[in-house]
Amino acid sequence: MNNAGVSPLLSVGPFALLLLALPVVLLGEALNQRFTGLRRLHIPAAILGGLLVAIALLVAGEIRPGLVRLSGETKNVAWLWPVLPQWDLSEPRATGVERPLLILFFTCMGLNASLALARQGGRPLLLFFALASVLSVLQAVVGAGLARALGENPLLGVLAGTTSLMGGFGTVAGFAPEFTKAGLAGAPVIGVAAAAYGVIAGGIIAGILGGRLIPRHGDPVRDDARAVDSADPAGPRPGFIALVLRLVAMGRPVLLHLAILLLCMKAGAFLSGLLQARGLTFPVYMGALAVAAVTRSVHDSLGGRWLRTDCTDALGAVALTWLLAVVMVNLQLVQLSRAALPLIVLLAVQTVLMVAAARWVVFRLMGRDHEAAVMTAGLVGFGLGATSNALASMRELTARFGPAPRAFLIVPIVGAFLIDFTNALVTTLALNLLR
Q1: Alpha helices of 159-223 — where are they, by DSSP H?
Q2: Which of 105, 227, 308, 361 has a Cα at 20 to 30 A from 69?
């Protein structure tokens, strides 16, 4: 957030950023508790508090350029080692300090994925994936057409559409050089700005939309149905400190589950690295999720009883909340604040498209019930921002209205993995047709 050559008054390194994220979460929780109107919007505390801090940093940077420097990248091998496809302690490439938290969260979800629940995915999973894929194509087509109508390079519409929104920061990082080669100047900055907008919009709108759909169209939820479902990592959610204290109170089982999760993360890193070396698109967190899911399946098939869902749920909730706070604080909103008018118009139209399609098409086709409402919120979350945003908003909804185990099976598989194939294909096709 500082200009080149300007010495910052305050420099925040990656691990200081991790610590800063904790009071940010508490700030969001305090605001949700204090203001009933905010609580009814179902915005996750980490996103709410993180957005306010990011805005404050933006304002401070505008008042005095270079006042604060945030650095979220680290090469600390001790911290990153569980998610690296290596056994030695050689220095890795610079990676976001929040990466282990992201992978830990998805590993927790994999360890809770029982075969009985997986069989329930079936046709709803295929339908949800098809709907998300159609929306990815629409984002590209509408974006390119609108950009051309505005007198801009149609590739701007593609980059600010499906590549940045449905794809997220990772897809932007991978495709930005190709957009530059294809003739779109400033592609990296445009992509990051659009993705930053998506994280904010998706994190806020998903909870609002889901909160409106469930009371009107969802199934009535009895009080006893609000208990934590053994297949749903999203049961009633206490505050962040209460979650940490619950883990401490569990004692040894937490250490056992952490050890299992770390082993799954490490094995998943090698699995993802192997598949990536063969030219396949396979994110590291999907490797960890797959290994954890296999571990759970073997455990269940052998009649095991020592994997505790409540323990894994609590660990996953802490990781997700912490992760989101770090991402939100480190959004670098200055890039978004300086976005050109055509980009702002494109993002506004894409937001309307996503909300309208989710509300009037996806919700209805997925069944118009409680599960459909939670899945619709999830689609908006990752269709505009990121899968972690989607799941955080879904957790807010299920904490109030009751569990949605099928939604928590389908949304991560589609949002974190399957849609990446569609998105990469659509972006590649657009680059070849519009260059």
Answers
A1: 169-181, 187-217
A2: 105
| Cα gap 41→43, rounded to integer Å | 6
Q: What tokens does 258 get?
A: 């952490």
Decide: 327 and 54 in contact? Cβ < 8 Å: no
Task: Quote the CA–CA distance of 411 and 421 in Å, as a whole number.
Answer: 15
Closest CA to 218 of 12, 104, 322, 372: 372
* pLDDT tens sequence across 108-135: 878 887 666 556 667 898 999 999 999 9
Closest CA to 358 of 339, 345, 369, 372: 372
Q: Which two tokens stand for residue 417?
A: 């993995």
Tens of pLDDT, residue by residue over 377-407, are: 999 999 998 887 888 889 889 888 888 888 9
Count of CA atoms in the C-beta half-sphere (13 A) of 109: 31
Question: d(Cα 290, Cα 272) in Å, to the nearest integer?
Answer: 10
Kind of pairing between the strands at 73-74 and 95-96: antiparallel
Of 273, 228, 248, 285, give the one whose Cα is nearest residue 98.
Answer: 285
Question: Residue holding tokens 């250490």?
Answer: 255
What lies within 8 Å, CB to CB, of 393 at 6+ separation is 42, 43, 44, 202, 203, 206, 207, 210, 377, 378, 380, 381
Residue 82's H or E segment, with its range, is: none
pTM of the entire predicted model: 0.72
Alpha carbon distance 321, 396 (integer Å): 11
